[in-house]
Each structure stands twice: as C-alpha cells, then as structure tokens.
Amino acid sequence: MLGKRSQRLVPKAERVYEVAIGVVFAQHATMEKDVVEYILSQYRQFRHGIYLDYQVYANIINTADVYKLSRLICHQLSRSVVVMLGAVFPESFSTLHSYTNLLKVPFLMPWFPEKVNPQNGRVDDLAFSLTPDYHRAIIDTIILLGWKHVIFLYDSNDGLLRLEQVYKHLSPGQAMFQITHTRRVSSALDVITFLVGLENLNRWTNKYVVLDCGTPLAKEVLVHHVRNVTLGRRNYHYLLSGLVMDDLRDKNITEFGAINVTGFQILDHSSKNVQNFFESWPRDYISAQGALMYDLVQVLHHSLKKMVEQYPDFLRNNKSVSADTSSVHHQAGIECYGDILLYPAKYGERFAQVIKGTEIEGITGLIRFNKDGHRQNFTLQIVQMTVSGDIVKTVTLEERRSGKDAEKEKKLNGELIDYVKKKSENDPRRYAEKSTSLVTLLHKRQRAANVRRHAEKKKRSPLRKQDFELREKIGEHVSVVAVVAVAGVAAAAVAAVAEVACVVAVAVAAAAVAAADAVNLRRNGIRRFVMEIKILRNHN
What we know:
With about 550 residues, this protein is α/β, with parallel strands linked by helices. It is about 45% helix and about 20% strand.
C-alpha cells in the first residue's frame, strides 16, 4: 500500500534519508495510483549511494467542498511532507494549489486541470505540470493536413483555453485556415446532434473536426458517428487534440477503423526508454496520464537527491508544523488543529528551484521546465488510425527554442516534407497545394529563428544598418532565387512537363532553400547575391 514504508534492512554504508510525501488522487484515478506504487517499489530495490526511504501519505478526493479539502490538506502538511503529488479534478485543484503555495510546498501534477493563474510579482508559483502546452502542435498539424475550414468541439475549460490560444496565433488576413464552427459539448449525443445539423446544411462537403476531450467521450463519439446513418464516413476527418490516442488501442471496437482519425501520442514506442519500461510494467499499455505520472515521480526522485546533496539538513529542518506558539518562525502560521500551527516550509522555494533545474529523459521524452514551472522542449507523435484499428506514427513534432537544437529543427522539416510526398505521391496537384502551405510554414519558422539569431548577434557585435537590412532582404527573396535556379538548371524539362509538375518542382525547391541558413553569407557575398536577384528579375 502507498501509506506503508519499506521495512527491509538497508546497508549501513549507504546514506539513508526518510522522505515524507503527500499524494492526492481523484476517485477514479486508478492508473495513476498504480503507477506511483509501481515506481516507488522499483526505487526500493536499488540501494546504492543516496537512498530515499519514502513514507507516502495518500488520500482519495471525492469532494469539492472547500472546508473538507482544507482539513485534508492541513492534515497532509501537518505530517511535514516536503512535496505534494496530485491527480485531481478542477474543482479540487484551486484549493490545494492555494494552500501549497501559501505554505511553500511544491505541488507536482501530471497535468493542470485548468490554466494556473500566475501569482503576483512577490510570490513564485510552486505548482508544476508535465503536460506540455501543445496548441502550436494543433496548428501545425492542421496546416500539414491541408485543412482550410475547421470545426472545433471541446468539453472543458481546458479545451476552451486551447481554442483561445489557437485563435491568438491565427494572424488576421494571413491565417492558413479558418475555424468556422465552435461548440462546447458534454456528451457524444451533443456532438452527433451538432454534426447532423451541419450535415443537413451541406451534405457533400468534407468536414474536418478538432475534438478536444477525454478518452471516454472520444470513444463514444467515434462509435456513434460510424453507427449514425445520417453522417458520412469518408467525408469526415477527426483530429483528437487531447492526449487520448494512447488509450484507443482497442481492436475489438471495429468502428475505430471506419473513419479518418488523427491524433497525438506523448509516448514514442520506438524509444529505448519506453521499451525498457514495458519490459517490467505489468500491463500491456499505459495511458498518457499514467505515463506523465511515472515521469513526474522520476522528476521528484532526481530533484530530492540533488536537494539533499546541496542542503544536507533539508529533510531535518524543513518542518512546516509547530505545536509551540513561541516557535522560531517569524511568519504568521495557519491554525489547522487546535494549537497546531502550520508555517511556510524553510526550503520550499529552494526545492522548487531545484525542480525547475531538473532535466531528465523520461518515457514521455525530454523533461525540462521553464521559469514558470511549465514543461518545454517536448516531443509529440502525430499518429493515425488504420482500417484495422492499429495506430501508426506519421510525424514527430518537437518544440525547440534554443540554437543548439537547430539541427533537430531541420530534421523535423525534412520529415514533414517526406511525409507530404508520401501521402500525395498519387495526386500531384494535392502535393503541390500541400507543399506550398508547407513552404510557407517552414519559411516563417526559419525567418523567425534568423531574426532572433541576428538580434542576439547584434547585441554582441553591432552591425551597420545597411548590412542588417541586406540580410533581412535575403529572407524575402530566398524563394525567388529557388524558382529562378530551378528554371535555369532545368528549363527544357520544366517547359515540357505539365503545369502541375511545375508547381511541384517550385514548391519542393522553395522548401529546400527556405530551410537553408542564408543569413550566414559573408557581407560581400550578400551584396552580390542581392544583385544577382535583381539581374535575374530584370532578365525575366
């Protein structure tokens, strides 16, 4: 059980630290509870160096009552827990979040049930989430699929916030797709009724649906859609924007293979870490939430080891509780049980900083936090469901922000281009359309990266204004050079082929050149390059 501590003997030569942690689960979070038990049992088997003897205090939350939650959290913190782990509903989260912030106890969750409002400038937020903010992945996937008009359906505040973030990134007049209909739904019946209404208005058009919901609702929607006699199958394509594809591996549900379904997986089953995990994991699958909880405990374990190395008295002097009102604490305490007062943990904020600095490779990929405690530089797999109900990976999306990951960004661009080629090899016109959209996307990404790189370089070694303008001009004319180069090298071939083939050649060349690092040309080369563009333009 979670609440029991290991009774096995530990060699005296090891440094042994007793660690009290609090865990709260929602009533139906069975997978997350099993994951915590499993990984802690794994840690108890490896005893070398620093050994952490975990004493876990677990509670199941089945209420949103603020008074009951306050009693529960006070009871947890009165045991001097150094951290709280949780998988709770939105109604419970805000109360737990407020108490842990007030008492300086880090609160780690696989996902935030709703957006965490940042604290004011005087207080750091001690809440951490492993679920990445992946609205950009939704946008990139829609562009990759070539959708122009999108129906966005969601079932929670979290989905509404994702919709808002998507809207913010759609530039007026330059958006590559439009969200034509939005609707908050609460059941599969709501979804089907809404889609039937759209079907009656225009039956023969293709309909592209972004469905942001949990696994149970996603399963019901797909099954009801296929069984509905009014809704078509071939003219519908679903993008499941929640991390639910890991839970849809059920070949017994034949309806899954009867409709186009694309989604995201946070687990890369070709990864060595994932394969090693499944060798000892007692089940044949793990949900996305369970995988995130597994990595969350790994982050906690590594952070605690770093903390006791840096602050050896961390676990002895981090007490939050005092029964003596004349305590050395100089801050006001919170009265929970009679004369027992709770005080902010001495090392709570330092521990939060150590967690933010922790970087590991988990089963969900690279885990790294930003200054706000949110995950960054994550990896998602774009997957599709086949006719037989299998889930196959098509493209890997990586969020990269630092210059050292430029090579991986170029590799991603190449994977996107290869994917478009493969999916459209029998339809040149469709390939040309998709390639044009892809070129625009890659060109925007490369342009933004070049601007950031030049801004940083300008701070170190200021450039003359005219040179900087010439470098900026390269980004504007790079696709023109690609078109002229292709026309000059294979003019006869281009003239002989059909118009669609010309568009394909131009699009592929533009994609290749847009990914090149043109801004690193020498100054003289830049001037000559721009002159060549002007000459070629006049010649044409």
